[in-house]
Design goal:
It contains 13 helices and 9 strands. The protein is mainly α and about 260 residues long. α3 crosses α5 and α11 packs across α13. It comes from Priestia flexa.
């Protein structure tokens, strides 16, 4: 059996590369899988009267490897684009989806956008490569990549505010909203602005914000941005010993998971 046959034989997700450039890989995977599930349930006559079908977080994670957090962000993106509808209903509540099958114009526009983004990314990389290669006095090409990387590394050692960090580096909107909520709570309770952090520390906050250590078998609890805001509020109401309430403390150990459980989540 060839490598291609081996991969196809165990289930594959087909995604459109142009769409991935336009809306992101996770949202594209989610959209492709939801379309597939729509036709699966339609063939089995298991769609609701208004075209919805249900699918759990666990089932979608098994089928796509997307975590709860990744699914949440992807769903939000697809709903905003009016490519799907999403709602929870029933007791116990189930997660229902409806694929908007009359979205050909919207999808065509996104594909065109994706094509432009793909081409601009390729051109940008070529331009940067050309700029990095300079000619020295002996007309010998000198690659300045290492020098540029060292300069970037040096710049990242300076402490900066989160406002400055998000202005220089790419941060998703939900993370900005959660972190700014934390900084507002810090200012309210501590009567001062949160200390500046080095860029790599802010990046650590973003990378680890949604996953907290806990005693579960897999070792971590996963949170949504919506849940984190309540956890942050609970965090500042909690008295710790020798704690300055720096956000780095908040993302350490089991802090978030313990506050999460106290809220009864």
């Amino acid at each position: 059996m060839s490598l291609l046959e081996l991969l196809r034989s165990d289930g594959s997700i087909i995604i459109n590369k142009k769409l991935a450039h336009a809306i992101g890989v996770d949202a594209t995977i989610m959209y492709s899988e939801l379309i597939s599930k729509h036709f699966y349930f339609e063939a089995r006559q298991e769609l609701t009267d208004d075209g919805f079908f249900f699918n759990t977080v666990e089932h979608m994670q098994a089928d796509t490897a997307l975590s709860k957090y990744q699914q949440s962000k992807a769903i939000k993106k697809l709903v905003e684009l009016d490519l799907i509808k999403h709602r929870n209903k029933g007791l116990p509540q189930r997660r229902y989806f409806k694929v908007m099958l009359n979205s050909e114009l919207k999808v065509s526009q996104l594909l065109a956008t994706g094509e432009k983004l793909k081409n601009s990314t390729f051109k940008s990389k070529k331009t940067k490569q050309t700029e990095v290669e300079k000619v020295d006095s002996n007309n010998t090409k000198v690659n300045n990549t290492d020098l540029i990387n060292k300069e970037k590394g040096a710049n990242r050692e300076f402490a900066l505010s989160f406002y400055s960090f998000k202005s220089k580096y790419s941060v998703d909107e939900e993370s900005i909203e959660v972190i700014e909520h934390y900084l507002e709570r810090y200012h309210f309770y501590q009567r001062k602005s949160h200390p500046n952090l080095k860029a790599h520390q802010w990046q650590t906050v973003i990378d680890e914000l949604y996953y907290g250590e806990c005693n579960k078998p897999d070792g971590y609890e996963e949170f949504t941005g919506y849940e984190l805001k309540y956890i942050i509020d609970e965090h500042f109401k909690t008295k710790y010993e020798n704690c300055d309430y720096n956000i780095l403390h908040f993302i350490s150990g089991q802090i978030r998971a313990l506050r999460y459980y106290e809220l009864g989540c």
